[in-house]
């Protein structure tokens, strides 16, 4: 198009507006946190509501410790905060906590619930490489779009590439896997469209299969390694140990040129026939149909899908993770449920949802930076609100009063048991999987693997601990070095943060009793509480240990006077100093024969401990 004097004049005028806007921004910068507060204030005014008063320092400091690193603060951490007289000490504390090891642990728990992270996947075996990979992404603060892109495009063996575990999780149910992916990362309510046109949304069954076609040439090999293990076993290695050896090698994600997506046998719509090959086409959020994609190499289909999903131009991707993080801090999302963003205008505050989605894009999907913005809002730093009546929208005059999650309660109790060292205690079982990876090519076919029997068993022998008998030993040491055998014992060895324990814990463990997800369904953790949790808090094994031989009791016992002891316990358990009445009641109790551990018991069984104010 030719340049005319009119277009030149318009360009100059536009440039002048941009420069003026930049100068105005430089003189009166409006940060992202302030923008959020402004939108919330407009909404509150519209509904004739007021924001809550600012949270006091006690409420703030305990809240940010629980929300950012997943545990209560220590006495020393409180003292450090209160000794800082700078006006921006709250912002500085937020920065410090976001960069701490505790934040990595807390976020792993949060993502574990969302992504259904488990130690073992059915017929796949151990997934420790996935745990280590996910924790490394959090430690390095990988942008959310890159992290998700890597999970969707990961290839290779599970023992070598932990990110493959995401797609292997539902390897035997590829359509369910796609549905879960779209729901988790886009808030797209598509489950019904697997079988028929969605009755309440714009999704059709054809839409769903066209999206599934981007995974049509991918093989998610979830091999039942019991059969090849039977083929390989001998007097030196049992079937069970060969299953353990084969799983990190045979469970993999690969390109398979012989595979493609076709319409199901019961496809009943006139826009396609059962058995027809499905074209590749992305859903559009404006209700229109995009053109089929015909020029993509089959090997690049998943990459193309991941590019589309994680793009800043995809309005659902940024909105979905921003909405989830908002719920993490406020107790309720801007758009509920977080798994259904089909109608963004149906949010409690559509303008707020649009803003936080745009902010996620503006920070290049930096999850840590996005959290920093939310945490520095006046809305977050306001006093809490109680849950509104059923059917009444919550308008974010402050966060909701929330119970601790199971992981927050456990990590806080473990802190009291062991002290602040708990943040530094890390477990990494991935090396035990990685050492099992074959350093050679082998036949992945279940029947043909017998051809590689000799070199597989020769490699297995190198994994045996030195001195272990090979005849009849069954290969007991395949998963461990002789000097580092795993010992199951109760006590201090089990007092680790939730992120460092098996995922998930057994049903009888405190974590599960308190609401930790079984990781079979996404976002299944509970904060409802109940009789079983109350009993565990009153007389469970963990509390018994806490009352007798714990870091908090030992440190309290070193205080000079009863008043000092009581003050230490209140600061440590509740992040505040005791009132005169509190102190008097505790001293009376101590003089009547109660012990310090029993005062800790009372504090931990109070509503003030278990709720985040």
Kindly describe this structure.
With 613 residues, the chain is mainly alpha-helical. Among the domains are: 105-303, no CATH class; 313-403, no CATH class; 531-612, no CATH class. It has 28 helices and seven strands. It has a three-stranded antiparallel beta sheet with strand order 3-5-4. Strands 1-2 form a two-stranded antiparallel ribbon. A two-stranded antiparallel sheet has the order 6-7. A hairpin with a 3-residue loop joins β1 (120-121) and β2 (125-126). α22 (531-539) packs parallel to α23. The termini are far apart. 40% of the residues are buried. Residues 1-28, 469-475 and 480-489 have low confidence and may be disordered.
Briefly summarize what is shown.
The chain has 613 residues and is an all-alpha fold. It has helices spanning 5-27, 32-46, 57-69, 75-83, 89-98, 101-115, 128-139, 144-153, 165-168, 174-186, 205-212, 226-232, 239-250, 301-310, 315-330, 350-362, 367-375, 406-418, 430-434, 453-462, 510-513, 531-539, 541-548, 551-557, 562-574, 580-591, 596-604, 607-610, and strands at 120-121, 125-126, 156-157, 218-221, 252-255, 402-403, 611-612. Helix 2 packs antiparallel against helix 16 (350-362) and helix 25 packs across helix 26.
């Amino acid at each position: 198009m030719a340049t005319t004097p009119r277009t030149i004049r318009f360009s100059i005028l536009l440039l002048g507006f941009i420069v003026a806007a930049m100068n105005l921004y430089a003189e009166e910068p409006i940060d992202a946190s302030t923008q959020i507060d402004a939108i919330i204030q407009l909404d509150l005014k519209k509904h004739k509501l007021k924001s809550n008063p600012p949270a006091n320092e006690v409420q703030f400091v305990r809240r940010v410790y629980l929300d950012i690193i997943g545990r209560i603060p220590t006495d020393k951490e409180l003292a450090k905060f209160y000794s800082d007289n700078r006006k921006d000490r709250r912002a500085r504390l937020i920065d410090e906590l976001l960069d701490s090891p505790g934040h990595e642990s807390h976020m792993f728990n949060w993502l574990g619930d969302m992504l259904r992270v488990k130690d073992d996947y059915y017929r796949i075996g151990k997934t420790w490489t996935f745990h280590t990979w996910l924790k490394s992404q959090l430690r390095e603060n990988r942008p959310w779009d890159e992290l998700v892109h890597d999970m969707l495009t990961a290839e290779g063996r599970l023992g070598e590439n932990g990110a493959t575990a995401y797609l292997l999780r539902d390897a035997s149910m590829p359509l369910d896997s796609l549905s879960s992916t779209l729901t988790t990362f886009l808030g797209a309510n598509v489950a019904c469209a697997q079988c028929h046109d969605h009755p309440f949304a714009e999704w059709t069954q054809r839409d769903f299969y066209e999206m599934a076609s981007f995974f049509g040439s991918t093989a998610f090999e979830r091999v039942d390694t019991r059969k090849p293990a039977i083929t390989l076993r001998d007097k030196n290695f049992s079937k069970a140990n060969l299953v353990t050896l084969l799983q990190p090698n045979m469970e993999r994600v690969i390109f398979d040129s012989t595979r493609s997506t076709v319409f199901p046998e019961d496809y009943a719509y006139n826009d396609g026939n059962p058995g027809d090959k499905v074209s590749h086409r992305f859903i559009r959020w404006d209700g229109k149909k995009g053109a089929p994609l015909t020029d993509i190499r089959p090997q690049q289909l998943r990459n193309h899908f991941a590019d589309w999903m994680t793009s800043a131009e995809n309005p659902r991707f940024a909105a979905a993770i921003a909405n989830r993080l908002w719920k993490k801090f406020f107790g309720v999302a801007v758009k509920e449920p977080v798994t259904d963003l089909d109608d963004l205008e149906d949010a409690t505050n559509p303008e707020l949802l649009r803003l936080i989605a745009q902010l996620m894009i503006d920070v290049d999907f930096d999850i840590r930076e996005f959290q920093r913005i939310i945490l520095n809002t006046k809305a977050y730093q306001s006093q809490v609100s109680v849950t509104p009546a059923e059917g009444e929208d919550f308008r974010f005059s402050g966060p909701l009063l929330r119970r601790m999650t199971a992981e927050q309660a456990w990590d806080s109790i473990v802190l009291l048991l062991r002290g602040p060292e708990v943040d530094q205690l890390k477990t990494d079982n991935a090396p035990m999987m990685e050492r099992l990876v074959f350093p050679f090519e082998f036949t992945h076919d279940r029947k043909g693997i017998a051809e590689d029997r000799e070199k597989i068993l020769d490699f297995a022998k190198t994994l045996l601990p030195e001195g272990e008998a090979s005849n009849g030993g069954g290969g007991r040491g395949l998963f461990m070095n002789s000097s580092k055998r795993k010992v199951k014992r109760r006590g201090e060895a089990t007092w680790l943060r939730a992120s460092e324990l098996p995922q998930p814990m057994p049903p009888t463990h405190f974590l599960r009793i308190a609401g930790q997800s079984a990781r079979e369904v996404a976002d299944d953790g509970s904060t409802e509480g109940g009789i079983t949790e109350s009993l565990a808090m009153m007389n469970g094994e963990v509390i018994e240990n806490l009352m007798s031989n714990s870091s908090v009791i030992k440190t309290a016992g070193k205080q000079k006077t009863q008043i000092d002891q009581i003050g230490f316990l209140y600061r440590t358990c509740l992040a505040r100093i005791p009132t005169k009445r509190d102190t008097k009641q505790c001293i009376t109790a101590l003089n009547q024969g109660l012990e310090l551990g029993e005062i800790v018991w009372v504090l931990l069984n109070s509503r003030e401990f278990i709720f985040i104010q």
